[in-house]
Amino acid sequence: MTVSITSYLLVALILFCIGLYGALTKRNAVAVLLSIELMMNAVNINLVAFSKYGLHPAVSGQIFTLFSMTVAAAEVALGLAILIALYRNKATVNVDEMDQMKR
Amino acid sequence: MDTFLHYAWLIPLFPLLAFIVIVSFGRQLKEGASFVGILLTAVSFVIAVLAFWQRFHGGADDYKFVIDWLQVGDIVINMGFEVNQLNAMMLVIVTLVSLLVQIYSRGYMHGDERFPVFYQYLALFTFSMLGLVISPNLLQVYIFWELVGVCSFLLVGYYFFKPEAKAAAKKAFIVTRVGDLGLYIGICLLFWWTGSFDYEQIFESVGLGRLEPWMVTTAAVLIFVGAVGKSGQFPLHTWLPDAMEGPTPASALIHAATMVAAGVYLVAATYPLFIASETALTVVAYVGGFTAIFAASIGLTQRDIKRVLAYSTVSQLGYMMMALGVAGTAGYVAGSFHLMTHAFIKALLFLGAGSVIHAVHTQDVFEMGGLWKKMPITALTFLIGCLSISGIFPFAGFWSKEAILGAVYGAHRYDLLAIALIAAFFTAFYMFRLYFLTFTGQPRGKHEPHESPAVMTGPLLVLAVLAIVAGFVNTPYAPLLSEWLLASNTGTTIAALFGEGSEHTATWLQVLALVISILGIVLAYLMYGKKAVSADAIPQTLPWLYRLSYRKYYVDELYHYVFVRPLGWLGIFLNGFDKYIVDGLVGLTAKITQGIGSLHARAQSGQMQSYGAMVLFGLLLLIVAISLTVQGGGLFGFGH
Description:
Structural class of chain A: mainly alpha
Largest interface: A-B, 13 and 9 residues
Radius of gyration of chain A: 17 Å
Number of helices of chain B: 28
Shape of chain A: elongated
Strand order of the largest sheet of chain B: 1-2
Radius of gyration of chain B: 31 Å
Number of strands of chain A: 0
Number of helices of chain A: 3
Helix content of chain A: over 70%
Helix content of chain B: over 70%
Number of domains of chain A: 1
CATH topology of chain A: Helix Hairpins
CATH class of chain A: Mainly Alpha
Distance between the termini of chain A: 57 Å
Shape of chain B: globular
Largest sheet of chain B: 2 strands, antiparallel
Distance between the termini of chain B: 104 Å
Order of helices and strands of chain A: HHH
Number of strands of chain B: 4
Structural class of chain B: mainly alpha
Oligomer: heterodimer
Largest sheet of chain A: none
Strand content of chain A: under 5%
């Protein structure tokens, strides 16, 4: 049995939507970060899927995914660091109260 | 031999220098500013006299110097100066009167807070007037013409804290502006038709008949409209009496001797244009004649000493215009001659009136009286001025008035002659009414008058001498001025057209004019000097006639209702239009933009999640839009 590209894309789509929903609705900043990771991984799945079944299959897609994961790891580290700094200042992880960007 | 003519351009520059110096150092100079003005004007006067002398005696030719100023296509516009007979005479008159007025003002304006400012204006005015006189082309004339108008505005509004002075200054500016517009159009038309602003080239074109007769008439009449505005001729005369709100020396300088003379001068300077059109000349003659009698009849009843003099000025300017209008060599000479004598006489009268006002602190003649004993020099010089302007033998006014009457008679304009004679009667009457009310009888004022200081009486004496002797330059027995003026280029043009030697001196006319003037004086004496005839006789029997004259024929009221009010309404309407429609539209645009902006600003909550939701929503919108609009649509356009 062969798994078509549609299945991969469908999984990635579902994953992305869950991530997006979480990123837009969760009140907890940690949960928002987690959701963003989900979206990132949905993209990674797409990259890998296209590197195998795309119009021009090439290994560069998979390599790019590795880069993407590395960058994502660094990004999360940074994000958490900011989050901790914010928590220390405001004693909250509720994103509704983090509206400093307004000013 | 004619070296001073080459340096004639310096004449206007000295007053300009005075202006600059007083503007720069006025605060430090304080009343010393007057010395700067007097000294530099004196230098101008000396050069003007030397140039005049060379022109008059040395037989020097017309001197003209121009530089290219602008080049527009093939047309070169010049700047420069010119000295000919007429303006050599004007240069001397303007510098002399200005010099005397400035000396006089030292006394009159003494203690005034803005003393240096007054001298600034005087210097700028003198510069402008001299520049106007010396200009060789109409464009340059127009520039100085406007400068003169500005100075007049400044000087009339010198006491700007008085509402009447402010209103008078505005009126002077706006009313003369009406005339200026005519002049401007006239100059533009002439430039269009002849391709030049230069007097010489315009006259040449006209002389060669390159212009259609209607063109010449139009241009001449339009230039005359400018002169009407500046010289206070009917129907633009209303500003001149109001302009008496300015300081009296300024009135003497501007509204009697020199600025109002600019209109007459302009007509005289562009005379070859006028003589090419019979219609234009007729217009000039009748406007002048009508103004002469109209203003004289108003002068009969005015109570303000300066206003009487102002109407007298208007009337005398009407005389000059009439003389110019009746054409011919005699008219040209008579107009220019009267321009000169009147400048001296009227400067004398105004300065005399200033001396009186200085002493009694009122301008109402019915509050004066008996000043003869208190201020003998002023009284004597004023008497000379009155005699001279009334045309009593052998004062200057006699000769020039006689020249005008002779010219009118010679041109067979008997209607104008009658007008002129009646106006002469009026002139004699109101001048001596003024004299008797002011200087004779019992003192009616509250103040204790005293003679003015020497710095004020000195100029009066000089002018009084001139008011006596100035007429002798052109008596019928020795017409020096006449011969000299007619020797100029303009003069020969006129002479060529009308023929030389059109002097129509009739002895009976001289005697008649003299008798009429004396009758006027006698009547004034009986009414106001001896009080043998009741001065109230006419106001009581014909009150409407008296009121008509006293209220200046209601011209001001007429203008108020016909022009000022409707224009005011138009202004209010346009202001409303601007405020509510134009501004409303602008405001509406601003409000809409602001509303949209505040709507957006509310979206900027600082909440990352709502931003994200908006981005998502936008993306969805884009996708929908693209899928709907792109041809062969479908979602993303795949699969087709």
